[in-house]
């Protein structure tokens, strides 16, 4: 579904993404791991159109989408979430979901003045869709809560719910587990798996929680210093010498080897 070919993103002399090449296949939940500063979020930002690449290409279903703005990619079914949830805090959880579908009739002044029946019917349909999403995510009980008052984990579920309000093809999840307790993280994981299996969503997930990655993701891609180091199952990637060195550093890696040799 997504092919990244020789992607670079430079900030002055700093190469945040340095020639990354990878593929996210349709129907997978692909994990993206790597130490802090590896370039994972910058890669997401370039793919999702928030940052222009310095060079390289992003291909989606055979179409070159390099540098297209987020609203155009949104219409093509490419969505992303963020490390810190971006909610409309003064609106209810249900209203946050109802904001998502584009080109609503009520957005036009003419319709607001002369097509109120059409607007009411459309809003009822969107509200029903939002309630279905809340039920799917098991958070119907907070539908009327102000989004600014719910927990961080619940906000992450609401962000996931937003992707369900449109026909998403691929969703990029940036540290969906950050600051989330284990119970809610399991709920989020269950929802991702169901969306993948039951609704055909393709996901790419940045996450530092290896248990979460191991439960959801195959394949797993590891980045370091802006480059792709390894790809495979989580166990294969974790046992790759280049990955071990990227996480531990050469000195600590050698120290651990010495300790194991003398054990």
TrEMBL record:
It comes from the Bacteria. PROSITE patterns: ABC_TRANSPORTER_1, ABC_TRANSPORTER_2. It holds the Pfam family ABC_tran. Coiled coil: none annotated. Residues 2-250 form the ABC transporter domain. One of its GO terms (molecular function) is ATP binding. Keywords: ATP-binding, Nucleotide-binding, Transport. InterPro entries: AAA+_ATPase (IPR003593), ABC_AA/LPS_Transport (IPR051120), ABC_transporter-like_ATP-bd (IPR003439), ABC_transporter-like_CS (IPR017871), BCA_ABC_TP_C (IPR032823), P-loop_NTPase (IPR027417). PANTHER family: CONSERVED COMPONENT OF ABC TRANSPORTER FOR NATURAL AMINO ACIDS (PTHR45772:SF9), CONSERVED COMPONENT OF ABC TRANSPORTER FOR NATURAL AMINO ACIDS-RELATED (PTHR45772). This is ABC transporter ATP-binding protein. It comes from Pseudogemmobacter lacusdianii.
